[in-house]
Amino acid sequence: MGETAKGEEMNAPLRLAVFDFDSTILEEEGIDEIAGLLGPKVKKEAAEITRKVNEGKITIRQGFRRRMKKMRGLPVSGIKKLAWRLHFKKGFRKLVSVLHRRGYKLAVVSGGFGILFRELKKREQAMRLFGAILCNEFGVRGGKLDGTYSANVVESKDVLVRRLARKFGVR
User: Which of 20, 32, 146, 158 is catalytic?
Assistant: First the structure.
């Protein structure tokens, strides 16, 4: 029985597991935590914008613009340090390890920001198992956020997931 199960698994089609980042892999909502570096008032305002986005009261794009305005001038060094204080969801490490051992390709598609992912990848083995990340990036000038961003993920994640599936040869 063990050999059959192994043989079947070896001939199984490629698999892809795609995760969101903020409040899924992480306990926290990254953009709200980043805003918190500017103080509790800005963090509360950013969280309110996030709530409105999640409830569909404003678009993701509108929410981004509003939060980015508030974070203009924030030093990138503070964001990098913040990444080291974030928490993974319970069971995340084990889930990723099991999926990886079973041959899954792992990816992140997130409206969050790549800087947090890259910093967490430095400290956490489980994060290094991800073969792809599609996320947004902050505009930076002189080591500080300039209020702009590249919006790689702002609306429909399903298109991006299909693109990843093609990249990894998953049907």
Answer: 20
Identify the three-state secondary structure at position 45: helix
114 vs 136: CA distance, rounded Å: 6
Active site residue 158: no
Residue indicated by tokens 């509790």: 40
How is residue 51 written in tokens?
A: 């709530």
Identify whether 20 is a catalytic site residue. Answer: yes
Phi/psi at 42 (5° precision): -65, -40
**pTM flag (> 0.90):** no
Q: What are the counts of helices (DSSP H) followed by strands (DSSP E) for the chain?
A: 8, 4
Q: How big, in percent rounded to 5, are the helix, strand and coil portions of the chain?
A: 50, 20, 30
Tens of pLDDT, residues 1-56:
333 344 444 455 678 999 998 889 999 989 889 999 999 999 999 999 989 988 99
Helices 40-54 and 60-71 pack at an angle, to 10 degrees, of 170
Rg (CA), the chain: 18
93 has pLDDT over 90: yes
Which letter does DSSP use for residue 142 in this model? T
